[in-house]
Amino acid sequence: MPSLLQTVFALPLRGLTWLGSHGTRAVAAIVFIAAAVPPLGTLLRPYVTEAILVLLCISFMRVDLVALSGHLRRPALVATATAWTTIGVPVIVGLIAHATGLADRVPGLSLALMLQSMASPMMASPALAALMGLDATLVLVTLVTATAIVPFTASLFASLFLGGMLSISPLALGLKLLGILAASLLAATTTRWLFGTDAIQRHKQPIDGFNIIILFIFASAVMGDVVSDLVARPLFTVGLAALSFAIYFSLLAVTTLLFRRIGTERALALGLMVSQRNLGLMLAATSGALPATTWLYFAMTQFPIHLSPYMLTPVARRLTARADRSSTAAAGGKLEP
Hints:
The chain has 337 residues and is mainly alpha-helical. The chain is built from 18 helices and no strands.
């Protein structure tokens, strides 16, 4: 009997390990599979909130508490990065949307952009940074602090810039965000207590594989209508896709430039985090009660989010290699008489 049980569990475990070992390639493939099979979107859309809760739980479960406490003892950089992603980005987007009259001309797109800017970074950002060879610890610490305050900042900016565009009040939005994050943190803490940190670390690749499956569920739910929208409104849909790429890489470039003094590699890691916004958290908080244009823009953002780690990995590896050579040269110089 034990051998039978081991066989039953070994097969899915090997499958998850294989999936997790493919990292950025699997993440990139998700977006195309999700878009190519629209019925999956219809089937999985009711489970968006559950998928987000699981993704949040996995991310909180894998937090390196030692590294977290180490970075928190040097809070200046973390505080600056947190202020930029939670306050600076939504203020800039909100002012641009107001100045251009976007809320009056295309209210669904204006709502999408504001929700995107108000969202905390994606919980998968540290894992993606690690897959690219970047400083995942700095990303993780900033992610934790930004996520902790986003219920309050999102409520504030919703009241300032969104008016009556949301189906729920700014206060209700903040409370729902707080509840989702608290529930995920409680589940993650319980999981760590039951299985232990060592077991979680040993099963890193199967957990990565499971994380990719949940990402696929979320992407399918969000992208279920992409093909029909592309057929019905091709120019508008392609335009939203181009806009999503432009915003993604603008946030990436501006953040990297703003933090370049800490080193290009670490600045790029922060740029990756800031450009990847947790739109799923906003979908869960609003129960998906959003205009069709908002849903379509959220679907288009999945392309840069899922493709950029694969596209940027060669750049990240060159920066990491250059930093390693510089460190080696500096150490060698110190050893010379």
